Recover the amino acids of this structure.
């Protein structure tokens, strides 16, 4: 605070230096969202859908271009120490933007459901009421969803880049609040969707209260919420370390909630099931990437000292083991495809946590590789779920999927690709990702974790294959669900996801190389 | 600055007892409005604590934003969705409710133990920091618009999100234009013409000829009996209609035969 | 009195808030308990700010209030929308929920 110390009586205000270039990916995302709000206010209702979708996609692409332009610049801490722009940040931001682009293509889909998107015609009208029928008949749409989700994307870009706990908290809320809202806007089964939103909101707010109290304790410990300053105090302690570790534990509860790790996973299956399916795909992929980025930054920058690592590593290892067991075992019992994918997301969070607990550069690169390949595959899987429809929306019960492979070979084959990738079949991207993480964990000296992970993978292979068997080797139902014919946008998204899943399994070296190059650099 | 002055010590002990009682009230009170008022009390106590600790601006903001805006919003929503809505809206946490109690209490003891063993440094006090900028508000502003400008910018995104979100979830646009008074009136006469039982003149106001003119006080008919139609149906449904007491006739004894002769409804709650 | 008593108070309030979240079943009360937890965190920030003799803690508490206010708006909007749907919950909706 050299500015303030300048004079003894009154300090003069010096305008802070703003690094617009380095902040540009986030500024573009937030700017696009704000423009979207203005479009809502001024554009006529009929044109809003087109403008909003176009604006969002252009915004994401522009933001991605900004990330590309920043690639290779020196790692630095900008915005007065609030934001760290380094290799890891840029890699994760780029990943989040690619994932968001694919997810927005699926979210904007209208062809699968009688020229309506997945969101209620008017969020405030009561389901089944005359007002709802009238708004649906007129073809109204909740186009506010697009700017809201853009705000969420902006928060996600900031979350893994946040270099102090206050910025991280604000970013956490910026990414969560739009998701809470959008969760409750499903067109079909709205009561379920709204209860999912309520559950997500209450548990999310509960966990962010823990995050905040943890941040308060760390502030008490270090006198600052800046991660670098906390790291200095950890290396040269001035106060008792009880405050530090309790603070980190509470902070970790908030982050592990967003990651979806057990025992903070309770919300995942219910919210994934209740939310509109395209949004579920977006949440499952992008939120997880952002949250893992933030978790890695807190642990590596704030607590990257040996004495601290010895304390948090066993705890995180325990969390990883519990997460894998919960995800693997409970997925077996699911009858609903969305819930099954939710438990699969929990299981994958467990694998990623193994990568987080090993603090080597190799493990960091493995985590960075795993995040995009997992994200693309899970968006693809949820996109296939949107295509299988009944009268009341998507047919998500597994028994309804019997014989789907014969009636609709292409969607079924695509889903099979994603599920086989999740199951860790060789020549798929996730196989390479798992392999990299396990290898790093072995090199870092934790074979016990790898054993649990391999057992969980075997268990998981069973329930993924069960879906494939149901689709391809059982007789079709006489009145089975219909398969919607998607628009070119969803076809593109599915093709990209399937291509990435296979191509990165066969030729992973480019992305692995990029992850390796990005992982080591952390601005402090 | 190791110890606080006597004034602050007194404030702390009184305030902390009140705020803990308030927090207990929030958890255990049966009625939601009581819970909300208990939370208001806690927030007011915290505002005084902030001021006592040199955070004058924050104390004021606490009163204006939290007790003033946030809690009023809570009460407003309570009124909107009905104070008697006791039904559970959350089904997240089943069964393990009471299992949670020992865990949370243990957690609380851990937190207290952490502070007890934290070896906290001496309290410096905020006087010097406040003086740097020439006052608490100025010093905060210096920090807010320089060191923390990025968080400030991003919080605007959070605020826009919440405003938009509230509109999306609660604002209903009309699909048909609102009926004018003239149209309603014509409709009413048409229904009356078809033989339906409609009141052509509109319903009577509450409180006419009664002791109060509050909305929950029914109007009295010429024979002294209360008129059900004068009270809003919601209030009738909630059984919160006020009882009435007819004015005594001139020359009659108070509480005497004159009142009793006016009918059984005399001093009884109308709704019962 | 040592000022760190404020920290003990904040710990107690935070615990009581967490207890309320877990034992109450009404969404609005649960939400108010979460607000109590955020307030307890703010008290800790302000007290630590006094301990360190720097105003950063107060700025953070200020941001918490702003963000919490936004959170309240979103939360209450969700609660209202659930309530509206529930109040009219009829056989049709039960069908929607059938899996």
């Amino acid at each position: 605070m050299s500015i303030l110390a300048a004079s003894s009586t009154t300090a003069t205000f010096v305008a802070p230096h703003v690094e617009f270039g380095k902040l540009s990916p986030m500024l573009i995302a937030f700017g696009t969202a704000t423009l979207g709000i203005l479009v809502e206010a001024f554009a006529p209702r009929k044109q809003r859908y087109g403008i909003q979708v176009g604006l969002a996609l252009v915004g994401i692409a522009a933001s991605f271009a900004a990330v590309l332009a920043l690639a290779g610049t020196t790692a630095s801490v900008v915005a007065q120490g609030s934001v760290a722009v380094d290799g890891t940040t840029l890699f994760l931001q780029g990943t989040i933007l690619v994932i968001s682009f694919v997810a927005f293509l699926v979210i904007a889909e209208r062809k699968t459901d009688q020229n309506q998107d997945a969101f209620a015609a008017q969020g405030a009208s009561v389901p089944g009421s005359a007002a709802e029928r009238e708004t649906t008949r007129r073809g109204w749409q909740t186009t506010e969803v697009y700017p809201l989700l853009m705000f969420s994307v902006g928060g996600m870009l900031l979350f893994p880049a946040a270099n102090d706990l206050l910025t991280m908290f604000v970013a956490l809320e910026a990414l969560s609040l739009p998701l809470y809202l959008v969760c409750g806007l499903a067109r079909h089964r709205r009561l379920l969707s709204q209860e999912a939103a309520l559950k997500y909101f209450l548990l999310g707010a509960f966990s962010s209260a823990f995050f905040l109290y943890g941040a308060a304790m760390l502030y008490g410990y270090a006198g600052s919420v800046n991660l670098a300053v906390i790291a200095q105090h950890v290396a040269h302690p001035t106060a008792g370390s009880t405050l530090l570790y309790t603070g980190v534990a509470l902070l970790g509860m908030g982050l592990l909630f967003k990651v979806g790790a057990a025992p903070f996973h309770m919300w995942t299956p219910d919210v994934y099931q209740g939310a509109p399916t395209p949004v579920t795909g977006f949440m499952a992929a992008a939120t997880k990437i952002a949250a893992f980025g933030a978790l890695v930054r807190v642990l590596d920058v704030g607590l990257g000292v040996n004495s601290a690592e010895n304390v948090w590593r066993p705890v995180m290892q325990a969390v990883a083991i519990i997460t894998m067991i919960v995800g693997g075992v409970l997925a077996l019992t699911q009858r609903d495809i969305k819930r099954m994918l939710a438990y699969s997301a929990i299981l994958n969070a467990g694998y990623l946590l193994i990568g987080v607990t090993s603090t080597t550069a190799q493990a960091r690169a493995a985590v960075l590789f795993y995040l995009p390949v997992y994200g693309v595959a899970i968006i693809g899987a949820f996109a296939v779920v949107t295509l299988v429809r009944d009268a009341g929306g998507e047919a998500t019960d597994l028994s309804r999927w019997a014989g789907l492979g014969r009636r609709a070979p292409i969607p079924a084959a695509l889903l099979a690709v994603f599920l086989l990738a999740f199951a860790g079949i060789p020549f798929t991207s996730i196989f390479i990702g798992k392999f990299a993480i396990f290898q790093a964990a072995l090199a870092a000296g934790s074979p016990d974790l790898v054993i649990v992970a391999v057992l969980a993978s075997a268990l998981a292979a069973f329930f993924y294959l069960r879906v494939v068997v149901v689709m391809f080797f059982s007789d079709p139902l006489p009145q089975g669900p219909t398969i919607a014919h998607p628009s070119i946008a969803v076809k593109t998204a599915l093709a990209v996801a399937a291509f990435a899943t296979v191509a990165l399994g066969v030729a992973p070296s480019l992305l692995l190389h990029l992850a390796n190059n990005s992982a080591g650099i952390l601005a402090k | 600055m190791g110890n606080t002055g006597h004034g602050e010590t007194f404030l702390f002990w009184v305030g902390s007892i009140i705020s803990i009682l308030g927090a207990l009230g929030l958890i255990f009170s049966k009625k939601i409005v009581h819970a909300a008022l208990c939370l208001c009390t806690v927030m007011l106590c915290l505002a005084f604590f902030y001021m006592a600790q040199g955070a004058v601006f924050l104390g004021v903001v606490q009163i204006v934003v939290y007790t003033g805006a946030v809690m009023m919003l809570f009460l407003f929503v309570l009124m909107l969705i009905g104070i008697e809505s006791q039904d559970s809206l959350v089904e997240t946490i089943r069964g393990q409710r009471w299992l949670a109690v020992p865990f949370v209490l243990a957690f609380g003891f851990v937190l207290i133990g952490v502070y007890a063993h934290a070896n906290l440094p001496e309290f410096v006090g905020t006087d010097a920091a406040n003086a740097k900028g020439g006052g608490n508000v100025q010093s905060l502003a210096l920090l807010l618009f320089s060191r923390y400008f990025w968080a400030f910018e991003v919080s605007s995104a959070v605020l826009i999100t919440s405003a938009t979100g509230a509109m999306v979830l609660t604002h209903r646009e009309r699909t048909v234009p609102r009926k004018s008074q003239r149209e309603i009136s014509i409709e009413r006469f048409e229904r009356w013409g078809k033989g339906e039982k409609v009141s052509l003149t509109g319903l009577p106001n509450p409180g006419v000829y009664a002791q109060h003119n509050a909305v929950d006080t029914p109007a009295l008919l010429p024979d002294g009996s209360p008129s059900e139609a004068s009270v809003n149906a919601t209030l009738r449904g909630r059984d919160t209609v006020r009882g009435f007491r007819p004015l005594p006739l001139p020359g009659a004894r108070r509480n005497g035969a004159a009142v009793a002769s006016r009918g059984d409804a005399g001093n009884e709650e109308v709704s019962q | 009195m040592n000022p760190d008593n404020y920290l003990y108070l904040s710990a107690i309030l935070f615990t009581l808030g967490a207890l309320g979240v877990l034992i109450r079943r009404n969404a609005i009360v649960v939400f108010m308990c979460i607000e109590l937890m955020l307030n307890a965190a703010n008290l800790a920030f302000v007290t630590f700010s006094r301990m360190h003799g720097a105003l950063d803690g107060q700025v953070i508490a200020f941001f918490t209030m702003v963000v919490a206010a936004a959170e309240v708006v979103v939360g209450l909007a969700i609660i209202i929308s659930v309530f509206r749907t529930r109040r009219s919950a009829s056989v049709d909706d039960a069908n929607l929920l059938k899996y």
